[in-house]
Specification:
Elements lengths: L7 H8 L4 H5 L1 E9 L1 H12 L2 E3 L10 E9 H8 L5 E6 L3 E6 L11 H7 L26 E2 L3 E3 L10 E10 L10 E4 L4 E3 L5 E7 L1 E8 L6 E7 L3 E2 L2 E3 L15 H6 L5 E5 L15 H5 L5 E2 L9 E2 L7 E5 L2 E2 L4 E2 L4 E2 L6 E7 L13 E7 L8 E6 L3 E11 L3 E10 L2 H6 L9 E16 L2 E17 L2 E17 L4 E18 L7 E21 L2 E21 L9 E2 L3 E15 L4 E15 L2 E6 L10 E7 L4 E19 L2 E12 L1 E4 L10 E4 L7 E14 L4 E18 L15 E17 L4 E15 L15 E2 L6 E10 L4 E10 L3 E2 L2 E7 L2 E6 L5 E2 L3 E11 L9 E9 L7 E9 L2 E8 L5 E9 L1
Parallel strand pairs: 2-5, 6-13, 7-13, 8-14, 8-15, 19-24
Antiparallel strand pairs: 1-3, 4-5, 8-11, 9-10, 9-12, 12-13, 16-23, 17-18, 19-20, 21-22, 23-24, 25-26, 25-58, 26-27, 27-28, 28-29, 29-30, 30-31, 31-32, 32-33, 33-34, 33-35, 35-36, 36-39, 37-38, 39-40, 40-43, 41-42, 43-44, 44-45, 45-46, 46-47, 46-48, 48-49, 49-54, 50-53, 51-52, 54-55, 55-58, 56-57
Protein name: TonB-dependent receptor
Keywords: Cell outer membrane, Membrane, Receptor, Signal
Pfam families: CarbopepD_reg_2, Plug
């Protein structure tokens, strides 16, 4: 049997044409897992027909089907339905397969006149079936031109003038998807790849040329001949030219073109130029240099985004929720920097697929492993060591990534200027593994597992420890060129404990635990160039053990006590449509509907209305059995965004977003130890709700060298959970009697100026923002600050960050990081009185005063090894000085009564310059 054929037009002339046999010859055949090529061989053997084609045209998908008393034509139509192949019979029993191009057995009446008129410009008309396509072989400068490919399958009855071409852009070496790649054409069509490397374009029939552009990748030119809808996957090589450093990477056109306000993307590879404390690369610390994102203070865990509390941020690691994203009192991130590809931060118009938090989403994506060869990275610094390996399992198809990071950091506590920390210990480590497998062109799977542990003893008698356990699995499936989806299963488990080993009579162990399991289906349908839909459904089960305490020995007088476990089911459906209204106006319309069910067993206390919640207003206690749904909440959540081009390099955006949060954190301290607990909504504690309005202007200058944006926001919140004055939150069965729910409001303006190219790169960010809470009630014991709005303890009106990197040579660079923030609010004593012979304190209204302003300067040097192409490994040294000015920035100010007197104390984390030297190796 032949596997290639001579010119079909010559065969047509020599043999003449006859469809009689292929249409009339019937036979029966069973396909029991054969490939298309094997099935064609069976048909040849049983019928005497011969097929002519190239074997590379056929895939290896197994076929399971029975064909009984069928014509050869009907069997071929079924077998080749999912390919771009046509077939035609020439002569006596010879069947020729053609790729894309439809071969006609007749000449239309107007064929010869059409030849005189047809040019390559007519290839985008509806006369597709009778046009001969001529290819232009001229090579575009500075681009790698590739061999022409044919896409789709020509249909004689088609009337379309445009067809949808879609596919994935991947790294040629590692096989990993490439996000934010500009895919454009010679017909002025352009788009960007998403986080999975997927793109979609509407192209006219006939000849087109596709171009790609992306930082650090080759510029590609791909001639294509379009017959119908089809798939074109693109692989790109990494560029070997010297590139300018760009720390925060969001493709320039995305900043102008996108409809999402308040979005930033941080790329891990380029974070190495930012000087950070103790030499550990930290993407989450870089996030705090962006406008609108801050923390309560140095060494604090969590983020405050646009006036939101730390529990209002959804931090996802490959779809699994990371409840504690920090190590070592908040000084280090819980993420291994070598395993993170990028972080997408949404602080404005959050996509409809995300829910359950009010302020932001940190969507962290891990890297895709190298499927070609073993590779890895390693580093050793003053407090941590790090190793990552990427191991191919099936060449070009499957790979495993494993990484581990640990610390030898006890010496830091001894170096800090605090006698109480001498002789104490602290350590952490984290492990991560990810497996990815491309099953075929339509299916790929991936799985991730993550574990981290922290343990620290900052007093002689207490050991604090916490753990994160995460697992996620994802199946990606492409239904067709326009429709694709993913099924995601994730599990998160966060555990915290205090092991107190003081006097035997009061030794105890305290812990709490929170688990959640989520199943999510997300689909994407690219209907046409004007509509792109995202829709899906998700469901999440919460399981909380709010707190357990028990004595450690028989001598301990601490009695065993546990708060009742809590369960809740949060489900949602969502749909969004990205609409191209015109060349200038684009909309992103989203709707999410969430439902929360509080699940028994549980005991719920019912209080009298219009009375303060306490023991005297308690009417009854209702008991619910396991599985009972004793309270249901449901809310629609609207996500709307719009972008309008003022000029091609100047756009305006606006958005509105509403969101609901059914889980709350409880804390009445600002210390660096992570002793917050969590609480689900129930009969007495309602879900938090928020509405956010934002708008901004975005502009490029100097051939996209400079990027600037200014964005304003206003946010209102309801049912914000806070605590009463003097509240006892730990191990409290009647927590609703110690907490209050009120309103919140925040507003601000964010300014960002970035320089993306040149020897000097970096950005200047400035934020002016305010954040207030109001706890008002008709009863004095249930209101704070006389029921008036008071500043949140993270309210910092002015926040300035200046980050820069200067390439002195191709191997040596110098970087700086300067931060200034208004001091955060605190509550100070305003008077004293004597009780039982001791001086007691009268405090001001909550958060009426401020600690001193915060500012810090860091510097760093990076020295890279030589750039020889053929070498075993690439290395570089990083030297940095954190807090080079030795600024004694206060973290908090607190007051205690000692010897009958009130004394004020100030706490700081780093009050001296902290140098570090780290050696990094990539192989």
């Amino acid at each position: 049997m032949f596997r290639c054929c001579t010119n079909l037009f010559a065969i047509l002339f020599f043999y003449g044409v006859s469809y009689a046999q292929i249409k009339t010859t019937t036979f029966s055949i069973e396909a029991q897992g054969e490939t298309k090529e094997q099935l064609l061989n069976k048909i040849e053997a049983s019928t005497g027909f011969k097929f002519y084609y190239l074997a590379e045209w056929l895939d290896n998908t197994p076929i399971y089907k029975s064909y009984g008393n069928s014509t050869i034509q009907s069997v071929l139509e079924d077998v080749l339905a999912d390919t771009n192949l046509h077939f035609i019979e020439y002569g006596n029993g010879n069947v020729y397969l053609t790729q894309g191009r439809l071969i006609h057995d007749y000449l239309p009446d107007d064929f010869f006149p059409a030849i005189k008129e047809v040019t390559t410009e007519s290839s985008d008309t509806n006369e597709a079936s009778s046009i001969s396509v001529v290819l232009d072989n001229q090579k575009a400068p500075e681009r790698r031109r590739r061999k022409t490919v044919r896409i789709g399958k020509q249909n004689a009855g088609a009337t379309n003038s445009e067809f949808t071409i879609s596919g994935y852009v991947k790294n040629e070496l590692s096989g990993s998807p490439l996000p934010n790649v500009v895919v454009s054409t010679d017909k002025n069509k352009n788009t960007l790849t998403n986080n999975q490397g997927y793109y979609s374009l509407e192209l006219p029939y006939g000849q087109n040329i596709i171009f790609t552009d992306a930082l650090g990748l080759e510029r590609m030119e791909q001639p294509v001949v379009v017959y119908s809808d089809g798939v074109l996957d693109i692989t790109l090589k990494e560029s070997v030219e010297q590139l300018d450093e760009v720390i925060i990477s969001a493709n320039s056109r995305q900043v102008i073109d996108g409809t999402t306000t308040g979005k930033n993307t941080i790329e891990s590879e380029e974070s190495k130029t930012i000087p950070v404390v103790l030499g550990e690369r930290d993407l989450l610390k870089i996030a705090t240099t962006l406008p609108g994102i801050t923390t309560a203070g140095e060494g604090s865990a969590g983020f405050n985004v646009r006036g939101g509390k730390t529990d209002q941020n959804l931090i996802l690691l490959d779809n699994s929720v990371l409840y504690n994203s920090s190590h070592f009192f908040g000084i280090f991130q819980a993420l291994n920097p070598y395993t993170v590809k990028s972080i997408d931060i949404y602080k404005g118009n959050i996509p409809a697929e995300f829910g359950g938090r009010l302020s932001s989403v940190f969507n962290i994506n891990t890297i895709d492993s190298n499927t070609e060869k073993i590779s890895g990275e390693a580093s050793i610094g003053p407090v941590t060591g790090n190793l990552k390996l990427e191991i191919p399992i099936v060449k070009e198809k499957a790979a495993l990534m494993v990484a581990g990071r640990g610390t030898y950091s006890d010496w830091i506590l001894g170096a800090l200027d605090n006698e109480d920390l001498q002789g104490r210990s602290a350590f952490f480590y984290d492990l991560i593994a990810k497996y990815q497998h491309e099953l075929n062109s339509k299916n790929n799977v991936e799985a991730m597992a993550y574990y981290s542990k922290d343990a620290f003893s900052i007093t002689q008698d207490s050991l604090y420890a916490y753990e994160n356990k995460l697992v996620s699995m994802q199946w990606n499936h492409k239904l067709n060129e326009k429709h694709q989806g993913s099924l995601k299963l994730s599990r998160s488990d966060y555990f915290f404990e205090i092991d107190y080993d003081g006097r035997p009579q009061i030794d105890f162990n305290y812990n709490f635990n929170i688990k959640e399991t989520q199943l999510k289906l997300k689909m994407r349908y690219a209907a046409n160039t004007n509509h792109s839909f995202t829709y899906g459904i998700s469901s999440k089960l919460y399981e909380l053990s709010p707190g357990t305490i028990d004595g450690k020995s028989e001598l301990s007088q601490v009695e065993e006590f546990s708060l009742s476990e809590e369960k809740g089911l949060e489900s949602a459906i969502f749909i969004a449509d990205n609409i191209k209204v015109s060349e200038k106006l684009q909309l992103d319309l989203g709707l999410r509907y969430s439902i929360f069910n509080a699940i028994g067993p549980s005991e719920q206390r019912i209080y009298a209305e219009n009375q303060p919640r306490n023991e005297t207003s308690l009417l009854e206690t209702q008991s619910f059995d396991s599985g009972d749904l004793f309270k249901t909440y449901s809310f629609p959540e609207v996500r709307v965004g719009a972008r309008y081009y003022i000029k091609p390099d100047f756009s305006a955006k606006a958005s509105y977003s509403s969101s609901t949060q059914y889980i709350h954190s409880l804390s009445n301290n600002t210390t660096v130890s992570p002793i917050d607990t969590w609480k689900l909504s129930d009969i007495n504690i309602e879900p938090q709700r928020a509405s956010l309005f934002s708008a901004g202007l975005y502009k490029f200058f100097g051939d996209n060298t400079y990027e600037t944006s200014i964005e304003g926001f206003y946010k209102t919140q309801n049912n914000i959970l806070d605590f009463k004055v003097g509240a006892q939150l730990l191990l409290n069965e009647v927590i609703e009697q110690e907490t209050l729910q009120g309103k919140g409001k925040s507003y601000g303006v964010e300014f960002l100026l970035k320089k993306n190219r040149g020897a000097l790169t970096g950005w200047l960010g400035y934020t002016y923002s305010r954040s207030f809470f109001q706890l008002r009630s008709d009863f004095p014991e249930e209101q704070v600050s006389n029921g008036e709005f008071f500043p949140a303890n993270f309210d910092k009106p002015h926040d300035i960050s200046l980050v820069s990197n200067y390439n002195i040579t191709k191997r040596l660079s110098f970087s700086t990081n300067f931060t200034y923030q208004t001091g955060r609010p605190v509550t100070f004593p305003t008077g004293t009185f004597f009780f039982n012979g001791e001086q007691q304190v009268l405090y001001s209204q909550r958060n009426k005063f401020r600690i001193p302003d915060y500012y810090r300067l860091d510097i760093g040097f990076n020295l890279e090894g030589n750039h020889k192409k053929k070498k075993l490994a690439h290395s570089f040294w990083s030297f940095s000085i954190y807090n080079v000015l030795g600024r004694n920035n206060p973290y908090s100010v607190f007051f205690v009564t000692q010897d009958g007197e009130v004394k004020a104390f100030q706490s700081s984390v780093f009050n001296i310059p902290v140098p570090s030297l780290t050696y990094n190796l990539k192989f």
